[in-house]
Specification:
This protein is about 45% helix and about 10% strand. It has 8 helices and 6 strands. The chain has helices at about 15-30, 50-55, 65-75, 90-100, 105-115, 130-135, 135-140, 150-160; strands spanning about 1-5, 40-45, 80, 100-105, 125, 145. β1, α1 (about 15-30) and β2 form a beta-alpha-beta unit. The longest helix has 17 residues, at about 15-30.
Amino acid sequence: MTIGILGNCGILAGISFTERLIELYALKKNVTNEYDYPRYILYGNPKLPSRSRHIFFGEESPLEILKEDIKKINSYGVKFIVMPCNTVHYYYNELQSVSSVKILNMIKIVSDYINTYHFNSKVLILGTEATYKSKLYNNYGMKNNTYYNDIKTVREIIDDVKHQKISENTL
């Protein structure tokens, strides 16, 4: 099995996701040898136009480049694709339409989990300005959610997490 990972939607997001994937896989599968890990393709394209600037200001869309990136990942014979970026899910339907394999929809998975197991809880969503503006989690049925609207503070937290200055326990 080969896992496809669309990286560079946030330069460190794909790397951080891959590190966490390997850690959790080792724990769950009790891995003792390097060759016991799954194969994966971490595909990064640092030349991708800003998703946020496209959503906010109508600047250059990254969609056509993202479609090409998804096709390239498919060409490696992956079983499925993961996109560890909230904002890129704005283009989820268009990207899934060009993929020959399932792209896991992180926002739908999280929304379904929260709606099933924490349906009476208020959920605070931290994300980029584009995640906030587009209300992506609302689009996938998240109930009882609140977007933290102090964008400056959210941006500082996101940058700190990306640069591993704080952990999820700090939040």
